[in-house]
Amino acid sequence: MCREVDLKQAVLAKNDGAAHALRTRLTAAGVTVVNLLSSPGSGKTALLERELGLARERGVPAAALTADLATENDAVRLARSGLPVRQVLTDGLCHMEAEMLGRHLDGWLPPETRLLFVENVGNLVCPASYDLGESLRVVLASVTEGEDKPLKYPTAFGLAQLVVVTKTDLAGPAEFDEAAFRRHVQQVNPGVEVLLTSARRGTGLGLLLDRASAVGAGAPAHTPVMAGPATSHGHHHGQGHHHGHGHDHGLHNHNHNHNHNHDHDHGHHHGHGHEHDHEHAPDQDPGPGRSSLAAAGPR
To answer: What is the pTM of this model?
Structure first.
């Protein structure tokens, strides 16, 4: 048992070294990496597709790398944005690793890229322990997954620098308790911001892009308690709950050459560039550009 633990720590230590080197290299090149983690079926591909399309409209030099155990379906979808997209097949590995990411970026990432979205393998366990050299770690959860998701996966949510709720158009039918979800998020990660989105309706569209762009421009990202006080990028690999009181933000001409070679490179370049908790929080005034689920439907 001790040898197994030692081996895991050695693997994570090696990955942390590779992540530090990759972060240094990409930061020097002016690239901000956004690591997207979620369960399968959370809707992160649909949201990312909309965000990439908006990035292209705004002239933001962005790209995306998406990882899956099999199929190129997500890359095909994301390539519709007209931005550079690459598929990574992990051959059964349940997460991305920093060395793997760096290897797939070499010779592919366009030099003008400023934002790189990495859609990690759909899994909230393994990917949570692996630093990819990202500047912003985002964890997504759909309203259909239940309010207790942060408590079930404390490491994933506890190390998030931003939490995004997806599929809010289904909040009513799913009887999603927004206040309970927020409390659970703050329980494991005090102070982290929660955004509400719906790719189908366009709710919150652009907020993820805005947050990523702000970090790229030098705005500090949230430092999770679980990550430790020494660094905003180092990831603590242990499990545990941290109880604290955070802040509630009151969120009430495309080139479609699909090159299916061994590298799975979708070279699309710029044309121009439920456990229901029925305690209810007091009503709050939504901030600008944000929406509340209070009117999403009957509980």
So the answer is: 0.76
